[in-house]
């Protein structure tokens, strides 16, 4: 009898249990040091966690987000984002010549991202990445 899959399942469950409580820094260190099946288990586990219990892991592992989105993708995929993105882009272009010009549209975009997440149109990890991108724009 081949119990390889049985052992793999137990190992993977152990990884999931560890991922529930380990700090993001410890998880990142373990992921970058791991190889082979351990790395594969960590990758799958991190992807599972970032779309369930630990969406903040998407900030630490953006390359592991399944179907990542950026703000520029939103208007083409979701009509409710067209107007807020236009407002945001217009205010960003105005800020280029007048740094004191207020940033407009960011609140509407944030609300739209939240609504898309609640409606199940985007995943938790996608919303984390989008909010992080929006935050980076706001701090410029």
Architecture overview:
The chain has eight helices and no strands. The chain has helices at residues 4-21, 24-33, 36-50, 57-60, 74-77, 82-97, 106-118, 124-138. It is elongated, with a radius of gyration of 19 Å. With 140 residues, it is mainly alpha-helical. It has two domains: 4-64, no CATH class; 71-138, no CATH class.
Give the topology, please.
Elements: H1 4-21, H2 24-33, H3 36-50, H4 57-60, H5 74-77, H6 82-97, H7 106-118, H8 124-138
Helix pairs in contact: 1-3, 7-8
Features:
mainly alpha; 140 residues; 2 domains; single chain; 68% helix; 8 helices; elongated
Which structural category do the helix and sheet elements fall into?
Answer: mainly alpha
Beta strand count: 0
Proportion of strand residues: under 5%
User: Mind summarizing the main beta sheet?
Assistant: none
Into how many domains do the coordinates divide?
2
Number of alpha- plus pi-helical segments: 8
SSE succession: HHHHHHHH
Low-confidence stretches: none
Using the alpha-carbon principal axes, give the shape: elongated
The residue-averaged pLDDT reads: 91
Task: Quote the distance from N terminus to C terminus.
Answer: 60 Å
Question: Taking Cα atoms only, what radius of gyration do you get, to the nearest Å?
Answer: 19 Å
Task: Report the helical percentage.
Answer: 55-70%
């Amino acid at each position: 009898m081949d119990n390889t899959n049985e052992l793999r399942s137990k190992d993977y469950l152990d990884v999931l249990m560890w991922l529930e409580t380990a700090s993001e820094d410890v998880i990142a260190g373990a992921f970058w040091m791991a190889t082979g099946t351990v790395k594969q288990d960590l990758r799958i586990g991190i992807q599972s966690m970032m779309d369930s219990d630990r969406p903040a892991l998407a900030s630490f592992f953006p390359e592991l987000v399944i179907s990542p989105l950026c703000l520029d993708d939103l208007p083409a995929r979701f009509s409710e984002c067209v107007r807020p993105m236009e407002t945001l882009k217009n205010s960003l272009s105005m800020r280029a010549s007048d740094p004191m010009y207020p940033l407009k549209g960011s609140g509407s975009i944030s609300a739209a991202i939240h609504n898309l997440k609640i409606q199940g149109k985007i995943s938790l990890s996608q919303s984390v990445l989008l909010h992080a991108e929006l935050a980076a724009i706001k701090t410029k």
